[in-house]
Amino acid sequence: MIPSILPTYNRAPMSFVAGEGAWLIEEDGSRYLDLGAGIAVNVLGHANPELTAALAEQAGKLWHTSNLYGIPGQQELADRLVDATFADTVFFTNSGTEACELAVKMARKYWYDKGETRSEIIAFTGSFHGRSAAGIAAAGSEKMTKGFGPLLPGFTHVPFGDHEAFQAALSDQTAAVIIEPIQGEGGIIPVPDQCLKGLRDACDAVGALLIFDEVQCGVGRTGKLFAHEWSGVTPDIMMVAKGIGGGFPLGAVLATEAAAAGMTVGSHGSTYGGNPLAMAVGNAVMTIVATDDFLAEVSRKAGALRQGLEGLVASHPDVFEGVRGSGLMLGLVCKVPNSDVVAAGYAAHVLTVPAADNAVRILPPLNITDDDISQAVRRLDQAASSL
Length: 387
Ligand SMILES: *Cc1c(COP(=O)(O)O)cnc(C)c1O
Description:
The protein is built from twelve helices and 17 strands. By secondary structure, it is of the alpha/beta class. Strands 4-12-11-10-7-5-6 form a seven-stranded mixed β-sheet, sandwiched between helices. Strand 13 (320-326) and strand 14 (329-334) form a beta hairpin. Helix 11 (338-347) packs across helix 12 (370-385). The radius of gyration is 21 Å and the shape is globular. Pyridoxal-5'-phosphate binds at residues 95-97, 100, 128-130, 180, 184-185, 213, 215-216, 241-242.
């Protein structure tokens, strides 16, 4: 008999009923240190008092009006994102997947309105852009697309890091190139800064738009507000979600005025996107995260965590191969199956998230305390010792 919850997830044997900072708590009071943060979502931890207050205050005033009317919190958050980034304009969604849908539509409409027939989009193997028609077509892996055809046409896939294949795929028919500055689901694989620069130059040479998917790596995770800032390169369109809502469903597409030129009245919409509740939380997240002091703390904590993880790798050479990533978006590359490491973590009451390429993701809340970082390394050491 089919379970009453559609069985698309293979769930761990824990269920949490409360949270507190970097900790999750079961009904019986057992506590787990959460180094997954809901897959890079709970950037300010669980039950953060400032986010809770912002949401509760808005909940008492107004939940939903639709985008038929002005939404003050939406104007405020859009202005903040425009001030803080390359972008001139923002559209709010409820998820990263919806941000992907709009990014693809925006890129195609840009060329349509220029009177060109360009619709091809180049994406990279190992990428993840969501589970919608455009998202799975962009990622292209059989794991996500098998059985769901016919797929949205117009996507070309290039092996991640293969410069020659990329140059061969790029042409005057390329509408856009979509890439995660750090692959998340793919196994925490950063794109070197000089490659992002090379991509930018190559796109400019043929006029193609460059789309960055910062759904997982954005919103302070690398110690900059957005990961691409380290490279000095900016995209034309950027997808944001996960961390921007701190746990409340919220996504966004940021774009330059030029790239967004095709998105005129009536060309796109969302019933819930940019609703007052999401905006209250998104503004509260930005107030805390988008400051130099907070981002400097992320980098400092990232240094401490990385040092601890390097030590862990050194003491368990049979379990781990190495550490990679940036800021508080780290991957432990495993020698044993990564699922064994994640399961051993459950036994040691520390939560991590598996990824492709046999990696285990460490994506803690960005405000994790120094004590919890020490606990994290201790518990991961306990987990590795049990293997
Ligand atoms: C999670 C993720 C998405 C999809 O976001 P949802 O909110 O799950 O729809 C897209 N791109 C990347 C890089 C992601 O990590």
